[in-house]
Design a protein that fits this description.
Rossmann fold; eight-stranded mixed β-sheet; alpha/beta
């Protein structure tokens, strides 16, 4: 994407009422007004709050929001030029139960209060296979602690990935740390029992993976 196009998208994001872009300082210093008030101030209802972490173009966030109008969805990504697409779609189609937050996943507990979130989706994260990159792996122990700090006691996390490595790593970690695996499937399109929202919503890249016969995996779990 050219820098002109990026700037255009950044400018357009600033005009969307469904995009929130706090500074790092605002979050870390505790000056972020929406923390603990996403439902009351942003969505103006008390429906369950669901996050998609590393939402990319926002296709999954918007897909879930359309499927579950009685839940509130927030797509989170540091790359605003990417989620511009999802934000624009939501504005054009008047989908009121979706928002986008531009920040790093590492700062998630500064953006949401304890027990504010009902559910988390992690869709097609970079598996960070190299050992040096494990600290960026989105289902490592440090990240799970962050998620637990903002989830309700019965909150769940969903991981959908095309990476066998990420699927196996996460399952191993969950069992090793004593978390509760509610459902696991290493080929959601060819094995029965996959939740509908796992197979009925596809990202652009996911449909490409499927065309070349790549298995898509899914885990739903609770952090103990």
């Amino acid at each position: 994407m050219g820098s002109k196009n990026k700037l255009k998208r950044f400018r357009e994001n600033e005009t969307f009422n469904n995009v929130v872009q706090p500074s790092r300082e605002e979050l870390v210093n505790g000056d972020f007004d929406l923390k603990g008030k996403w439902n009351s101030t942003f969505f103006k209802n008390d429906n369950p709050l669901v996050l998609e972490l590393g939402c990319g173009k926002g296709e999954y966030t918007v897909g879930l929001a359309k499927k579950f109008p009685n839940k509130n969805f927030i797509g989170i990504d540091i790359k605003g030029a990417r989620f511009w697409r999802g934000a624009k779609t939501a504005v054009e189609e008047n989908i009121g139960n979706v928002g986008f937050l531009r920040t790093q996943i590492e700062l998630i507990e500064h953006a949401f209060a304890a027990e504010e979130v009902d559910e988390i989706w992690i869709t097609f994260p970079d598996p960070q296979i190299k050992y040096k990159r494990t600290k960026h792996r989105m289902t490592n122990s440090a990240f799970l602690k962050k998620y637990k700090s903002i989830l309700k006691p019965d909150g769940v996390v969903n991981l959908k990935t095309d990476s066998e490595f990420m699927h196996g790593y996460t399952l191993g970690l969950l069992h090793g740390e004593g978390h509760e695996v509610l459902y696991a499937n290493n080929d959601v399109y060819h094995q029965h029992g996959s939740p509908d929202e796992v197979t009925s919503i596809q990202t652009f890249y996911e449909s490409q993976y499927l065309q070349i016969g790549k298995a898509i995996t899914f885990i739903r779990f609770k952090i103990k």
